[in-house]
Amino acid sequence: AKDGQAFVDWLISPDGQAAIAGYKIDGQQLFFPNAGG
């Protein structure tokens, strides 16, 4: 459970949100982060 919580904490952090936004295929963004609401 501790590792899972660490992953969630990273996922909703600014670094995690930037990683989500930066995921692209053929230059097209696939995911749009929305951890801030």
Description:
The structure is a single chain. By secondary structure, the protein is mainly alpha-helical. The protein is 49% helix and 11% strand. It has a two-stranded antiparallel sheet with strand order 1-2. The protein has helices spanning 2-11, 14-21, and strands spanning 24-25, 28-29.
Please tag this protein with its features.
37 residues; 11% strand
Topology:
Elements lengths: L1 H10 L2 H8 L2 E2 L2 E2 L8
Antiparallel strand pairs: 1-2
Number of strands: 2
Approximately what portion of the residues adopt beta-strand conformation? 5-15%
> If you average the pLDDT, what whole number results?
96
Biggest β-sheet: strands ordered side by side in the sheet: 1-2
Radius of gyration: 11 Å
**Poorly predicted parts:** none
Considering DSSP H and I runs of 4 or more, what fraction of the residues is helical?
40-55%
Order of helices and strands: HHEE
For the biggest sheet, the summary is: 2 strands, antiparallel
Shape: elongated
Write a compact overview of the structure shown:
The chain has 37 residues and is mainly alpha-helical. The chain is built from two helices and two strands.
